[in-house]
Amino acid sequence: MASKLLKRTFHISTWSACPPRSARSLIAVAPSRFFSDSNSQPVPATAGSSPLPPGPPTTPNDAPSPSSVSRYGSKRKSESTHSSVKDPELAKFAAISDTWWDSEGPFKPLHLMNPTRLAFIRSTLCRHFGKDPYSVRPFEGLKIIDVGCGGGILSEPLARMGAAVTGIDAVDKNIKIARVHADLDPVTSNIEYSCMTAEKLVEEEREFDAVIALEVIEHVANPSEFCKSLSALTIAGGATVVSTINRSMRAYATAIVAAEYILHWLPKGTHQWSSFLTPEELVLIFNRASLSVKEMAGFVYNPLTGRWSLSDDISVNFIAFGTKDVQ
Ligand SMILES: C[S@@+](CC[C@H](N)C(=O)[O-])C[C@H]1O[C@@H](n2cnc3c(N)ncnc32)[C@H](O)[C@@H]1O
Ligand SMILES: [Mg+2]
């Protein structure tokens, strides 16, 4: 039902230009019980223990640890008083940080997905900022931040497309790898990398034309507060792009059971089903952060070709493009 509505509400970004449509009808059907308190976790969780990967019908509580909240100090000037950091999540990425640029390693799915997600970003940002998507450097003149940039898999192509790129990640080892790799090419060596959280950068009152956080929101302590930080980093009238995994049964079966436990694409425990967001929840979270979702698309994997493509199927992997309201 919700998926059908999304298919009607959002069009899929392709190279052809289509006018953005309103997300209001979608917002009307989203479950408001997830958002009664902006400081609460949007996903309800219950305790449980099982040899199976955590997921439906019982899910573990993913509340942030006290140590994660204190990691970046308590002084806050931004709208957000929360740290987005979940230390156990960062530990997972720190453990495999030297494999970021191994296209056959644990980040293989991200490498394979990259052309598809870049096509969506190129298409939506060019349409929004009036840039030519067919130019070699379509993002010339745009300041873009890649939040949770990891080893720079996305930051580098964004820089090659002409953007002035800032990449931040809460894991220092990731930033070191990203720096070394970007310095191998003069075109990417001007990327500004920093071990930092979005909320910390908000304190520094930095702003960007476009704020991008791909495959990060399912690893942060409080998605709602995280999106508020993304919004605060976005200029009025700018763009925010987030990709993540749908909290659907299909995602549990494919993105967790198959990808982690059968195919071993990702280390076991990479994802917690309870930390995923449905597209409806993401739209509401965006809305509460003064961001309007204008376009949404799914990523689907073809096991025969080994390729990902854009689709109207948002039942597992999906990406949302929003714009920051002009107050
Ligand atoms: C699955 S990776 C995605 C990397 C990159 N965005 C991409 O798609 O290629 C998630 C990244 O988010 C980072 N991360 C997790 N929580 C974070 C937080 N609260 N603030 C900044 N980075 C965070 C992790 O260290 C990791 O590098
Ligand atoms: Mg993930």
From TrEMBL:
<comment type="function">
    <text>O-methyltransferase required for two non-consecutive steps during ubiquinone biosynthesis. Catalyzes the 2 O-methylation of 3,4-dihydroxy-5-(all-trans-polyprenyl)benzoic acid into 4-hydroxy-3-methoxy-5-(all-trans-polyprenyl)benzoic acid. Also catalyzes the last step of ubiquinone biosynthesis by mediating methylation of 3-demethylubiquinone into ubiquinone. Also able to mediate the methylation of 3-demethylubiquinol into ubiquinol.</text>
</comment>
<feature type="binding site">
    <location>
        <position position="218"/>
    </location>
    <ligand>
        <name>Mg(2+)</name>
    </ligand>
</feature>
<dbReference type="GO" id="GO:0061542">
    <property type="term" value="F:3-demethylubiquinol 3-O-methyltransferase activity"/>
</dbReference>
<dbReference type="Pfam" id="PF13489">
    <property type="entry name" value="Methyltransf_23"/>
</dbReference>
<dbReference type="InterPro" id="IPR010233">
    <property type="entry name" value="UbiG_MeTrfase"/>
</dbReference>
<keyword id="KW-0496">Mitochondrion</keyword>
<feature type="binding site">
    <location>
        <position position="214"/>
    </location>
    <ligand>
        <name>S-adenosyl-L-methionine</name>
    </ligand>
</feature>
<comment type="subunit">
    <text>Component of a multi-subunit COQ enzyme complex.</text>
</comment>
<feature type="binding site">
    <location>
        <position position="219"/>
    </location>
    <ligand>
        <name>Mg(2+)</name>
    </ligand>
</feature>
<feature type="binding site">
    <location>
        <position position="148"/>
    </location>
    <ligand>
        <name>S-adenosyl-L-methionine</name>
    </ligand>
</feature>
<keyword id="KW-0949">S-adenosyl-L-methionine</keyword>
<comment type="pathway">
    <text>Cofactor biosynthesis; ubiquinone biosynthesis.</text>
</comment>
<comment type="similarity">
    <text>Belongs to the class I-like SAM-binding methyltransferase superfamily. UbiG/COQ3 family.</text>
</comment>
<keyword id="KW-0460">Magnesium</keyword>
<feature type="binding site">
    <location>
        <position position="215"/>
    </location>
    <ligand>
        <name>Mg(2+)</name>
    </ligand>
</feature>
<feature type="binding site">
    <location>
        <position position="169"/>
    </location>
    <ligand>
        <name>S-adenosyl-L-methionine</name>
    </ligand>
</feature>
<dbReference type="InterPro" id="IPR029063">
    <property type="entry name" value="SAM-dependent_MTases_sf"/>
</dbReference>
<feature type="binding site">
    <location>
        <position position="117"/>
    </location>
    <ligand>
        <name>S-adenosyl-L-methionine</name>
    </ligand>
</feature>
<dbReference type="GO" id="GO:0010420">
    <property type="term" value="F:polyprenyldihydroxybenzoate methyltransferase activity"/>
</dbReference>
<keyword id="KW-0489">Methyltransferase</keyword>
<feature type="region of interest" description="Disordered">
    <location>
        <begin position="36"/>
        <end position="86"/>
    </location>
</feature>
<dbReference type="GO" id="GO:0032259">
    <property type="term" value="P:methylation"/>
</dbReference>
<keyword id="KW-0808">Transferase</keyword>
<dbReference type="GO" id="GO:0031314">
    <property type="term" value="C:extrinsic component of mitochondrial inner membrane"/>
</dbReference>
<protein>
    <recommendedName>
        <fullName>Ubiquinone biosynthesis O-methyltransferase, mitochondrial</fullName>
        <ecNumber>2.1.1.64</ecNumber>
        <ecNumber>2.1.1.-</ecNumber>
        <ecNumber>2.1.1.114</ecNumber>
    </recommendedName>
</protein>
<keyword id="KW-0479">Metal-binding</keyword>
<feature type="compositionally biased region" description="Basic and acidic residues">
    <location>
        <begin position="76"/>
        <end position="86"/>
    </location>
</feature>
<dbReference type="GO" id="GO:0046872">
    <property type="term" value="F:metal ion binding"/>
</dbReference>
<keyword id="KW-0831">Ubiquinone biosynthesis</keyword>
<keyword id="KW-0472">Membrane</keyword>
<keyword id="KW-0999">Mitochondrion inner membrane</keyword>
